[in-house]
Fold:
Amino acid sequence: MNIGQASKASQLPTKTIRYYEEIKLISPMRAENGYRTYCETDIHRLRFLQRARGLGFSIDECRLLLSLYEDEKRASSDVKQLALDKIGEIDRKLSELESLKATLTALARDCHGDDKPACPIIDDLAGRTNH
Amino acid sequence: MNIGQASKASQLPTKTIRYYEEIKLISPMRAENGYRTYCETDIHRLRFLQRARGLGFSIDECRLLLSLYEDEKRASSDVKQLALDKIGEIDRKLSELESLKATLTALARDCHGDDKPACPIIDDLAGRTNH
DNA sequence: CTTGACCTTCCAGTTGCTGGAAGCCTTAAA
DNA sequence: TTTAAGGCTTCCAGCAACTGGAAGGTCAAG
Structure:
């Protein structure tokens, strides 16, 4: 599988894929002609990276998340704690997304005229995730 | 309210807040001594930006989202469509987060030993959002 | 055997911050 | 009243994570 197909499969631009190789997030094989060739595992990693990056996880966090699946040396309690930490973070993101969605949904539902949106929506702008 | 307090209230570093001013996402007033002063609306915007950026929306997308609440000139059907588009995007992010969480939860639950994680978890690495 | 769609590397530019220097403002203690 | 700490200012440099473009090699179709 060449980089173009990997790009389609992962929804990542080829530039980004090469960049991820440069910073050692993936290490695809090379064909005899010098072309990169991606195996199923590479594609999985790329798809994972595409999702996690799109959800606001940094490259280092992605590296950590990937390591959760692959690091055999780390004590299992560490792995577990890391996973639990990340789950907490994900829960926070989930509730933030929910509140953002609620705000937008209210906006789409209520603001049907040429007049300004109802005040409660604007008041909700900063979200209610912290209380 | 000075930048330090705004920083605490919004969970954004002061550097980032000044940067957001530079790119015209906010325009706080200035006190006589030259200090920036932030009103409630500014804080709302900052908190909103902090959340939206953390969820993977770009600065331009944030600008768009903010404009949804404030642009009186745009035809309401446009606003509605934009809001609906963004809601679709948020739904996608929500399901991606859910699948990521499920994967990590399975990892934390099942992988309690020194052995490698169970294969189904690794197989799930790239998520199931597209099928 | 050439045209067009791929692929390669390299290098420069962009986005979105982030850190540090140099200096002014403010509060609180000596 | 001076002075030290901490917060504020601007400016400029650097980093993270891409992104675009040039120059050129590879390959399948016509």
